[in-house]
Design a protein that fits this description.
Largest sheet: 11 strands, antiparallel
Distance between the termini: 45 Å
Helix content: 40-55%
Strand content: 15-25%
Radius of gyration: 23 Å
Strand order of the largest sheet: 5-7-8-9-10-11-1-2-3-4-6
Protein backbone atom coordinates (compact mmCIF):
# COMPACT_ATOMS: atom_id res chain seq x y z
CA UNK A 1 0.00 0.00 0.00
CA UNK A 2 1.23 3.52 -0.80
CA UNK A 3 -0.06 6.76 0.64
CA UNK A 4 -2.28 8.25 -2.13
CA UNK A 5 -1.27 11.80 -1.16
CA UNK A 6 2.39 10.94 -1.45
CA UNK A 7 1.76 9.29 -4.84
CA UNK A 8 -0.14 12.40 -6.03
CA UNK A 9 2.69 14.66 -4.91
CA UNK A 10 5.18 12.62 -6.89
CA UNK A 11 3.13 12.78 -10.07
CA UNK A 12 2.38 16.47 -9.55
CA UNK A 13 6.13 17.17 -9.48
CA UNK A 14 6.47 15.30 -12.78
CA UNK A 15 3.49 17.13 -14.31
CA UNK A 16 4.93 20.45 -13.12
CA UNK A 17 8.16 19.69 -14.95
CA UNK A 18 6.16 19.09 -18.14
CA UNK A 19 4.25 22.32 -17.56
CA UNK A 20 7.54 24.18 -17.14
CA UNK A 21 8.57 22.77 -20.52
CA UNK A 22 5.42 24.20 -22.11
CA UNK A 23 6.02 27.60 -20.54
CA UNK A 24 9.63 27.69 -21.69
CA UNK A 25 8.53 26.72 -25.18
CA UNK A 26 5.99 29.52 -25.20
CA UNK A 27 8.62 32.19 -24.70
CA UNK A 28 8.87 32.70 -28.43
CA UNK A 29 11.95 34.13 -30.11
CA UNK A 30 11.73 37.83 -31.00
CA UNK A 31 10.21 38.18 -34.46
CA UNK A 32 13.38 39.95 -35.59
CA UNK A 33 14.52 36.39 -36.27
CA UNK A 34 11.44 35.65 -38.36
CA UNK A 35 11.81 35.18 -42.08
CA UNK A 36 10.58 38.58 -43.16
CA UNK A 37 10.44 38.93 -46.95
CA UNK A 38 8.61 42.22 -47.52
CA UNK A 39 11.33 44.84 -48.21
CA UNK A 40 9.97 47.42 -45.77
CA UNK A 41 9.54 44.82 -43.03
CA UNK A 42 13.08 43.57 -43.60
CA UNK A 43 14.31 47.12 -43.03
CA UNK A 44 12.18 47.29 -39.91
CA UNK A 45 13.70 44.05 -38.59
CA UNK A 46 17.18 45.45 -39.20
CA UNK A 47 16.26 48.63 -37.29
CA UNK A 48 14.82 46.51 -34.47
CA UNK A 49 18.05 44.52 -34.25
CA UNK A 50 19.96 47.82 -33.98
CA UNK A 51 17.53 48.86 -31.21
CA UNK A 52 16.38 51.80 -33.32
CA UNK A 53 12.83 51.29 -32.13
CA UNK A 54 11.22 54.45 -33.51
CA UNK A 55 12.43 53.66 -37.02
CA UNK A 56 11.43 50.02 -36.64
CA UNK A 57 7.90 50.94 -35.59
CA UNK A 58 7.52 53.40 -38.47
CA UNK A 59 8.69 50.79 -41.00
CA UNK A 60 6.50 48.06 -39.53
CA UNK A 61 3.44 50.32 -39.72
CA UNK A 62 4.31 50.97 -43.36
CA UNK A 63 4.60 47.22 -43.87
CA UNK A 64 1.16 46.74 -42.31
CA UNK A 65 -0.29 49.31 -44.70
CA UNK A 66 1.17 47.23 -47.52
CA UNK A 67 -0.43 44.04 -46.22
CA UNK A 68 2.48 42.22 -44.55
CA UNK A 69 1.54 39.92 -41.62
CA UNK A 70 5.13 39.76 -40.32
CA UNK A 71 4.96 43.54 -39.79
CA UNK A 72 1.81 43.02 -37.69
CA UNK A 73 3.65 40.38 -35.68
CA UNK A 74 6.59 42.67 -35.00
CA UNK A 75 4.40 45.56 -33.84
CA UNK A 76 2.64 43.18 -31.48
CA UNK A 77 5.99 41.94 -30.20
CA UNK A 78 7.23 45.49 -29.57
CA UNK A 79 4.15 46.28 -27.46
CA UNK A 80 4.47 42.95 -25.64
CA UNK A 81 8.12 43.55 -24.74
CA UNK A 82 7.93 47.34 -24.33
CA UNK A 83 10.46 48.07 -27.08
CA UNK A 84 10.33 51.80 -27.79
CA UNK A 85 6.77 51.94 -26.44
CA UNK A 86 5.16 51.42 -23.06
CA UNK A 87 4.55 47.72 -22.49
CA UNK A 88 0.90 47.05 -23.24
CA UNK A 89 -0.23 43.42 -23.37
CA UNK A 90 -3.74 44.28 -24.53
CA UNK A 91 -2.40 46.34 -27.44
CA UNK A 92 0.13 43.61 -28.22
CA UNK A 93 -2.64 41.03 -28.37
CA UNK A 94 -4.69 43.23 -30.70
CA UNK A 95 -1.86 43.39 -33.26
CA UNK A 96 -0.86 39.76 -32.82
CA UNK A 97 -4.42 38.55 -33.38
CA UNK A 98 -4.49 40.45 -36.67
CA UNK A 99 -1.31 38.61 -37.73
CA UNK A 100 -2.65 35.31 -36.43
CA UNK A 101 -5.88 35.75 -38.38
CA UNK A 102 -3.75 36.06 -41.52
CA UNK A 103 -2.15 32.69 -40.75
CA UNK A 104 1.14 33.80 -39.20
CA UNK A 105 2.19 30.72 -37.17
CA UNK A 106 4.59 32.53 -34.82
CA UNK A 107 1.91 35.11 -33.99
CA UNK A 108 -0.56 32.31 -33.33
CA UNK A 109 1.90 30.69 -30.93
CA UNK A 110 2.57 33.93 -29.04
CA UNK A 111 -1.19 34.56 -28.75
CA UNK A 112 -1.63 31.05 -27.36
CA UNK A 113 1.01 31.67 -24.73
CA UNK A 114 -0.60 35.00 -23.74
CA UNK A 115 -3.97 33.31 -23.24
CA UNK A 116 -2.23 30.48 -21.39
CA UNK A 117 -0.53 32.89 -18.97
CA UNK A 118 -3.28 35.53 -18.91
CA UNK A 119 -1.15 38.33 -20.37
CA UNK A 120 -3.35 41.26 -21.40
CA UNK A 121 -6.38 39.00 -21.23
CA UNK A 122 -8.13 36.76 -18.73
CA UNK A 123 -6.39 33.38 -18.53
CA UNK A 124 -8.24 31.10 -20.93
CA UNK A 125 -6.97 27.56 -21.49
CA UNK A 126 -9.57 26.85 -24.16
CA UNK A 127 -8.41 29.85 -26.20
CA UNK A 128 -4.79 28.89 -25.60
CA UNK A 129 -5.51 25.43 -26.96
CA UNK A 130 -7.40 26.79 -29.98
CA UNK A 131 -4.56 29.11 -30.98
CA UNK A 132 -1.95 26.44 -30.23
CA UNK A 133 -3.72 24.03 -32.57
CA UNK A 134 -3.65 26.62 -35.36
CA UNK A 135 0.09 27.15 -34.94
CA UNK A 136 0.80 23.43 -34.47
CA UNK A 137 -1.05 22.78 -37.72
CA UNK A 138 1.79 24.73 -39.34
CA UNK A 139 4.40 22.58 -37.52
CA UNK A 140 5.13 25.21 -34.84
CA UNK A 141 7.18 23.30 -32.26
CA UNK A 142 6.35 25.61 -29.32
CA UNK A 143 2.66 24.97 -29.76
CA UNK A 144 3.10 21.24 -30.22
CA UNK A 145 4.88 21.06 -26.86
CA UNK A 146 2.25 23.24 -25.19
CA UNK A 147 -0.60 21.08 -26.51
CA UNK A 148 1.13 17.98 -25.19
CA UNK A 149 1.50 19.52 -21.74
CA UNK A 150 -2.11 20.73 -21.70
CA UNK A 151 -3.42 17.27 -22.58
CA UNK A 152 -1.23 15.80 -19.86
CA UNK A 153 -2.53 18.27 -17.28
CA UNK A 154 -6.13 18.47 -18.53
CA UNK A 155 -5.95 22.22 -19.17
CA UNK A 156 -8.69 23.41 -21.53
CA UNK A 157 -9.25 19.82 -22.61
CA UNK A 158 -10.04 16.51 -20.98
CA UNK A 159 -6.86 14.87 -19.66
CA UNK A 160 -5.58 12.49 -22.33
CA UNK A 161 -2.13 11.04 -21.75
CA UNK A 162 -2.01 9.24 -25.10
CA UNK A 163 -2.69 12.55 -26.87
CA UNK A 164 -0.02 14.19 -24.71
CA UNK A 165 2.52 11.66 -25.96
CA UNK A 166 1.42 12.04 -29.60
CA UNK A 167 1.85 15.82 -29.55
CA UNK A 168 5.15 15.73 -27.68
CA UNK A 169 6.41 13.16 -30.19
CA UNK A 170 5.55 15.55 -33.00
CA UNK A 171 7.70 18.19 -31.33
CA UNK A 172 10.49 15.68 -30.71
CA UNK A 173 10.56 14.87 -34.43
CA UNK A 174 10.12 18.47 -35.68
CA UNK A 175 12.22 19.60 -38.63
CA UNK A 176 14.32 22.75 -38.34
CA UNK A 177 13.32 23.90 -41.83
CA UNK A 178 9.64 23.94 -40.83
CA UNK A 179 10.18 26.41 -37.98
CA UNK A 180 9.56 29.80 -39.56
CA UNK A 181 10.68 32.51 -37.17
CA UNK A 182 12.74 30.28 -34.87
CA UNK A 183 16.53 30.08 -35.19
CA UNK A 184 17.82 26.54 -35.68
CA UNK A 185 19.62 26.65 -32.33
CA UNK A 186 16.34 27.41 -30.56
CA UNK A 187 14.57 24.61 -32.43
CA UNK A 188 17.30 22.14 -31.46
CA UNK A 189 16.97 23.19 -27.81
CA UNK A 190 13.21 22.71 -27.87
CA UNK A 191 13.55 19.36 -29.67
CA UNK A 192 15.97 18.20 -27.00
CA UNK A 193 13.48 19.16 -24.27
CA UNK A 194 10.67 17.38 -26.12
CA UNK A 195 12.80 14.28 -26.69
CA UNK A 196 13.71 14.18 -23.02
CA UNK A 197 10.02 14.46 -22.12
CA UNK A 198 9.12 11.62 -24.51
CA UNK A 199 11.78 9.57 -22.76
CA UNK A 200 10.16 10.29 -19.40
CA UNK A 201 6.74 9.28 -20.71
CA UNK A 202 8.04 5.98 -22.05
CA UNK A 203 10.07 5.28 -18.93
CA UNK A 204 7.07 5.85 -16.66
CA UNK A 205 4.47 4.33 -18.96
CA UNK A 206 2.42 7.51 -19.28
CA UNK A 207 0.17 7.49 -22.35
CA UNK A 208 1.85 4.29 -23.49
CA UNK A 209 2.95 0.93 -22.09
CA UNK A 210 6.17 1.28 -20.13
CA UNK A 211 9.15 0.84 -22.44
CA UNK A 212 12.57 1.55 -20.93
CA UNK A 213 14.39 0.68 -24.15
CA UNK A 214 12.43 3.36 -26.01
CA UNK A 215 13.05 5.78 -23.17
CA UNK A 216 16.80 5.19 -23.40
CA UNK A 217 16.75 5.79 -27.16
CA UNK A 218 14.98 9.14 -26.67
CA UNK A 219 17.32 10.14 -23.83
CA UNK A 220 20.29 9.42 -26.10
CA UNK A 221 18.76 11.53 -28.89
CA UNK A 222 18.11 14.36 -26.44
CA UNK A 223 21.65 14.11 -25.14
CA UNK A 224 23.03 14.38 -28.69
CA UNK A 225 21.04 17.59 -29.14
CA UNK A 226 22.54 19.09 -26.00
CA UNK A 227 20.00 18.22 -23.30
CA UNK A 228 21.43 18.81 -19.85
CA UNK A 229 18.89 16.48 -18.18
CA UNK A 230 19.25 13.43 -20.44
CA UNK A 231 22.82 12.41 -19.50
CA UNK A 232 21.84 12.26 -15.83
CA UNK A 233 18.87 10.06 -16.73
CA UNK A 234 21.08 7.74 -18.75
CA UNK A 235 23.52 7.51 -15.86
CA UNK A 236 20.63 6.69 -13.54
CA UNK A 237 19.66 3.86 -15.91
CA UNK A 238 23.33 2.81 -16.12
CA UNK A 239 23.47 3.49 -19.85
CA UNK A 240 26.17 5.45 -21.63
CA UNK A 241 25.22 8.77 -23.20
CA UNK A 242 27.79 8.03 -25.88
CA UNK A 243 26.71 6.43 -29.18
CA UNK A 244 26.40 2.65 -29.15
CA UNK A 245 27.75 1.63 -32.54
CA UNK A 246 26.11 -1.51 -33.89
CA UNK A 247 27.63 -1.19 -37.38
CA UNK A 248 31.34 -0.60 -38.01
CA UNK A 249 32.86 -0.53 -41.50
CA UNK A 250 36.22 0.08 -43.11
CA UNK A 251 35.53 1.94 -46.36
CA UNK A 252 37.86 3.05 -49.16
CA UNK A 253 37.68 6.84 -49.38
CA UNK A 254 40.08 7.62 -52.24
CA UNK A 255 43.58 9.11 -51.99
CA UNK A 256 44.99 12.10 -50.12
CA UNK A 257 47.38 14.71 -51.47
CA UNK A 258 50.16 13.33 -53.68
CA UNK A 259 49.79 9.84 -52.27
CA UNK A 260 48.71 7.10 -54.66
CA UNK A 261 47.78 4.79 -51.80
CA UNK A 262 44.07 4.36 -51.17
CA UNK A 263 43.09 5.59 -47.70
CA UNK A 264 40.49 3.88 -45.59
CA UNK A 265 38.02 5.54 -43.26
CA UNK A 266 36.28 4.06 -40.26
CA UNK A 267 32.50 4.41 -40.60
CA UNK A 268 30.60 3.79 -37.35
CA UNK A 269 26.81 3.82 -37.11
CA UNK A 270 24.40 3.85 -34.18
CA UNK A 271 21.17 2.77 -35.86
CA UNK A 272 18.97 3.42 -32.83
CA UNK A 273 20.18 7.00 -32.44
CA UNK A 274 20.44 7.48 -36.24
CA UNK A 275 24.03 8.65 -35.95
CA UNK A 276 26.87 8.24 -38.47
CA UNK A 277 30.53 8.95 -37.70
CA UNK A 278 33.26 8.91 -40.38
CA UNK A 279 36.88 9.00 -39.18
CA UNK A 280 39.45 9.58 -41.91
CA UNK A 281 43.15 10.48 -41.88
CA UNK A 282 42.66 14.20 -41.53
CA UNK A 283 39.16 14.81 -40.20
CA UNK A 284 36.13 13.47 -38.37
CA UNK A 285 32.58 13.94 -39.67
CA UNK A 286 29.44 13.32 -37.62
CA UNK A 287 25.81 13.34 -38.69
CA UNK A 288 22.74 12.90 -36.48
CA UNK A 289 19.21 12.80 -37.79
CA UNK A 290 17.34 16.05 -37.21
CA UNK A 291 20.32 17.95 -35.83
CA UNK A 292 21.36 21.39 -37.05
CA UNK A 293 25.07 21.77 -36.46
CA UNK A 294 28.59 21.27 -37.78
CA UNK A 295 29.28 18.06 -39.69
CA UNK A 296 33.09 18.32 -39.60
CA UNK A 297 33.85 18.13 -35.89
CA UNK A 298 37.60 17.50 -35.86
CA UNK A 299 40.55 18.15 -38.16
CA UNK A 300 42.03 21.01 -40.15
CA UNK A 301 38.68 22.04 -41.66
CA UNK A 302 36.67 21.93 -38.43
CA UNK A 303 37.28 25.59 -37.54
CA UNK A 304 35.73 26.75 -40.82
CA UNK A 305 32.82 24.28 -40.81
CA UNK A 306 29.34 25.75 -40.96
CA UNK A 307 26.10 24.60 -39.34
CA UNK A 308 23.94 22.44 -41.58
CA UNK A 309 20.68 20.54 -41.26
CA UNK A 310 21.62 16.86 -40.94
CA UNK A 311 19.66 13.72 -41.69
CA UNK A 312 20.10 9.97 -41.27
CA UNK A 313 17.50 7.45 -42.45
CA UNK A 314 17.49 3.65 -42.33
CA UNK A 315 15.48 1.41 -44.64
CA UNK A 316 16.47 -2.23 -44.23
CA UNK A 317 20.07 -2.60 -45.45
CA UNK A 318 20.20 0.92 -46.92
CA UNK A 319 21.41 3.77 -44.72
CA UNK A 320 21.18 7.28 -46.15
CA UNK A 321 22.88 10.24 -44.54
CA UNK A 322 23.94 13.76 -45.35
CA UNK A 323 22.85 17.37 -45.01
CA UNK A 324 20.70 20.06 -46.54
CA UNK A 325 22.03 23.44 -47.65
CA UNK A 326 19.81 26.13 -49.12
CA UNK A 327 17.04 23.57 -49.45
CA UNK A 328 19.19 21.15 -51.50
CA UNK A 329 20.00 17.74 -50.03
CA UNK A 330 23.47 16.18 -50.30
CA UNK A 331 22.66 12.46 -50.00
CA UNK A 332 25.17 9.67 -49.33
CA UNK A 333 24.35 6.03 -48.70
CA UNK A 334 25.65 2.69 -47.51
CA UNK A 335 24.34 -0.59 -48.87
CA UNK A 336 25.10 -3.03 -46.07
CA UNK A 337 24.23 -6.13 -48.09
CA UNK A 338 26.49 -5.18 -51.01
CA UNK A 339 29.15 -3.52 -48.85
CA UNK A 340 29.10 -0.35 -50.95
CA UNK A 341 29.46 3.25 -49.76
CA UNK A 342 28.23 5.94 -52.15
CA UNK A 343 29.80 9.20 -51.01
CA UNK A 344 30.24 12.47 -52.92
CA UNK A 345 29.15 10.81 -56.13
CA UNK A 346 31.62 7.91 -55.91
CA UNK A 347 31.03 4.26 -55.07
CA UNK A 348 33.62 2.55 -52.87
CA UNK A 349 33.88 -0.80 -51.15
CA UNK A 350 33.46 -1.42 -47.44
CA UNK A 351 34.57 -4.40 -45.37
CA UNK A 352 34.33 -5.80 -41.86
CA UNK A 353 30.70 -4.83 -41.34
CA UNK A 354 29.08 -5.98 -38.12
CA UNK A 355 25.50 -5.55 -36.89
Amino acid sequence: WQNPLRRWRRSSVFFSSILALAIVAGAATPPAAAEASHPVTVQGVQALERKNYATAMRLFRQGVAEGDSVALLNIGWMYREGLGVKRDYAEALRWLEKAGAQGNALAQDVIAQMYYEGQGVKQDYAAAMAWSLKAAGQSQINSQIRIGAMYLLGQGVKEDRAAALRWTLRAAEARVEDQIGLPAEVTNHLKARAQYTVGLLYERGIGTPKNVAQAISWYQSASALGSTEAPAKLAELQVSAQPQFDIVLWCDMGTYGSSTKTAKSLVSIDTKAKYVKIESQNQVMEMRDGVYGKIITSGSMAADAINLQQFVSIDGDIIKFGFKKNGVADVNSIDLRAGILRYSGQATECTNARR
